[in-house]
Amino acid sequence: MSYESPIREPLVNGGKTYADVTRDILRPLENKPSTSWWIGFSISAVVLAIWIAATTWTMLEGIGAWGLNKTVGWAFDITNFVFWVGIGHAGTLISAVLLLFRQKWRMSINRSAEAMTIFAVICAASFILSHMGRPWVAYWPIPLPNAFGTLWVNFNSPLVWDVFAISTYFSVSLVFWYIGLIPDIASVRDRAQGVRKFVYNFFSMGWNGSTRTWHRYEMISLILAGISTPLVFSVHSIVSMDFATSLVPGWHTTIFPPYFVAGAIFSGFGMVLTLLVVGRVVLKQEEYITMGHLDAMCRIVMLTGTMVGLAYITEFFVAAYSGVEYEQYAFINRASGPYWWSYWIMMSCNLIAPQVFWTKWARSTPWFIFVMSIIVNIGMWFERFVIIVTSLHRDFLPSSWTMYTPTYIEFAILAGSFGLFFTFYFLFCKYLPTINMAEVKSILPTHAHDDHHDASHSTHSDVEKGDAVHG
Amino acid sequence: MMLGVYDNPDTVFTVTENLMKAGYDVHDVYSPFAIHNLDKVIGVKRTRLSTAAFLFAMTGLLSAVTLMVYASYFDWQMNIGGKPSLHIPTYIPITFELSILFTAFGMVGCFFFVNRMFPGRNTDVIDLRVTDDRFVIAVNIHPQTDVKSLEQTFVSGGALEVRERVKDI
Description:
The complex is a heterodimer.
Chain A: H1 18-30, H2 35-61, H3 76-87, H4 90-100, H5 110-131, H6 158-191, H7 194-204, H8 211-244, H9 256-282, H10 291-322, H11 325-336, H12 340-352, H13 360-363, H14 366-392, H15 408-431, H16 437-442, H17 446-455, H18 460-469
Helix pairs in contact in A: 2-15, 3-5, 3-9, 3-14, 4-5, 4-8, 5-6, 5-9, 5-15, 6-7, 6-8, 8-9, 9-10, 9-14, 10-11, 10-12, 11-12, 12-14
Chain B: E1 2-6, H1 9-21, E2 25-30, H2 38-41, H3 49-75, H4 88-114, E3 135-140, H5 147-156, E4 161-164
Antiparallel strand pairs in B: 1-3, 1-4, 2-3
Helix pairs in contact in B: 3-4
């Protein structure tokens, strides 16, 4: 059903048949986990244990366990929150925005990117809970009738908007991801036996693959994509308003919403590259996640990196042009004050480093892309650190100027959140198809299937027998 | 019910078109992925889920506005930083988010309802390979149906198997 352009490279290499797609992608699910999976999973679980310990310590001690002080009231906690929420934007962007733009290369990467979204938002939410200091009253930002003299939440506050934005984003992303998974879970179900069949049957919701079902399915996928696209942009805009609606010099800027959204896409694609450059080799999916996919993602990283770089420079220009000395000092202090190193790490990782992707070599060398993706992650973490800490640590009253130094507990929570993220991710790789099989099958050229059918007619029954044995 | 099993979506499309032209009662076509325009060929009416989605969006919008206007204006006004209690621009983000939340959950709920889908449903899969690499055309048999020529159409269209299924779906 798919037209193959003679100019563009094929989206899936290796002349795959439909059965090949099912077999290749379900291989990790239908076999015992590999040694590399066990190594990765064990390391993640150990790091997760560090996270549990450090978070528990924070709960017991209160946020006095952190390096916060009277002047710097937000630091690692909100930096990590914005960092993880930003990473959580690539998944829905890939599946929703690229669906609306009919970019078919998204089909091999959208499943794992959406999974990454969900796990990243879970990590982000954990920081929201722990930064409250009293997590057992975390339900207070929700507008509930209560016993405090009908005290409602302040709907003028961006922090309340953020509660709605993040929880909507998480639940809609989860629904979108699950809807995409249903046909593939049914594929697993129809090849499985015993307990696995029971479990996958439970989650397949009785999917039967009929044209009527597909017709409705296509409709809701399109609408979900249509509503998720403005959702992605709105969520990070609202996150930026947590800062932009304040009066703190360095935060109080109108450029924040687009600048944060570009940064979120940038860091999200950075994390997608980190996961997929390794994952495609370990899961033997090089024919599905091709060099063409890596190339396209590198281009997006370069574009969005340049956009955030432009925003950094625009902020400086606006501060200078405003004539407000507090605004001007905030930016001079960023670039040359005591935290100058964090500013220049941000600049070099986010604006300067991605420019290497102008060269074809950089976009087609996996190890180099991996190194670059780590640099992007580091740079985007420092962007949030720069915005938050350097704007706060020298406030309007010079007598309260101070420095912020994180404690070991804060480092442990930051490191541990990667354990939380990767533990989820490894479980996902083992129990769910990491590539959307139904979509990938729909972009296979149908004549390739015919060729295979004719060429291997004699072995066809063997293939089917092999399939039946699976599970 | 007669089933024709195929391995190529293009063939399935042509055969279904021919069957519809010849006046057979095509029950449904089962495939591992959506075959575009096949729904039109077998006469599936355009789903009204998009209308449902719009109505859910409006429900979300109204709920959000009602909640915020009631809570911050009618029930208990608060003066925080001298900002107004009834202030439409600051209601926009939450209204937008709730509209999307209601749309997504309402529409997906309706999707499950019209498809009779629920967790743990034991569906009667027409062919286990239909979620892998096979395409099945199911044609209802009536007393006046010419089964011989139906089989003929299936086979000449390139069917790998033609079989009868006694149980209805």
